[in-house]
Amino acid sequence: STWFNEEAEVFIRQTLAEHGVNFHMGNRAKSVNKEGDRITIHLSDGGVVDADILINTTGVKSRISFLDGSGVKLNHGVVVDRRMRTNLDGIFAAGDVAAAPDFFSDKPGMNVTVASAVSQGRVAGAGMAGVQAEYQGEIPVAALNFFGNAAFSIGLNVPSVDTYKTVKQVDSSGKRFKKLVFSGNILIGGMFVNEKVDPGIVAWLIKKHLDTSPYFGALFDRTQPLSDPWLASLKIAKP
């Protein structure tokens, strides 16, 4: 999973399996038949699954074929800069069709969420009105609440170990997991399962590119109480 990996994914899958969820990993649906209210799914490994409801969640793909030959630069979507401008003067793009620079680099990528569409639309609209504004780039976030458990992932969580520093703590008996990822002393990602954590504080620290090295112990050991006293010790404004 791009959102949850390592022990975090294992704990999530174990919990779901304990509540009757079956997983068919590395498989794909070869065919789907429906007779009356019964749905039968034939899998690539020869297995068969009977279901009442079939949900297809294979992702989102932008409809950009009509732009072929137009001169607009394409890369899975319409390539734009941080002002949501395409390579052609006076043409902007935003939302599910826009391949915008991500938060951590200038590399164009798709972020098909409502929050991204709103942020990009505001920047594009400002640009069309002659007001300069820039899109900061969305930080990937996932949050799950399931059967009394909670999981939260944010930022870059599957980086190269040669490039970034990763610290983590695992409690298999309690299905608890936490991991922080740093670029130098800058927090760039975090992953938590059944840990008390303030998502807003973690997101804010990532967005501000703060040097957290003097406060690493507090950040890792006391993630949830990162509130007024801890922020005051940083001598920085509250989020």
Task: Please specify the SSE layout and strand pairing.
Elements: H1 6-18, E1 29-35, E2 38-43, E3 48-51, E4 78-79, E5 98-101, E6 108-109, H2 114-128, E7 141-146, E8 149-155, E9 165-171, E10 176-183, E11 186-193, H3 199-208, H4 216-221, H5 228-234
Please provide a brief summary of the model.
Helix content is 21%, strand content 26%.
Number of helices: 5
Tell me about the largest β-sheet.
5 strands, antiparallel
Can you give the helix content as a percent range?
A: 10-25%
Q: Compute the gyration radius: what is it?
A: 22 Å
Structural class of the helix and strand makeup?
A: alpha+beta
Q: Taking strands numbered 1, 2, ... along the chain, how are they ordered across the largest sheet?
A: 7-8-11-10-9
Whole-number average pLDDT?
Answer: 86
Overview of this structure, please?
The chain is an alpha+beta fold and 239 residues long. Helices cover 21% and strands 26% of the residues. The protein contains five helices and eleven strands; from the N terminus they run H-E-E-E-E-E-E-H-E-E-E-E-E-H-H-H. The strands form three sheets. It has a five-stranded antiparallel sheet with strand order 7-8-11-10-9. A hairpin with a 6-residue loop joins strand 5 (98-101) and strand 6. The model is unreliable at 224-228 and 235-239 (pLDDT under 50).
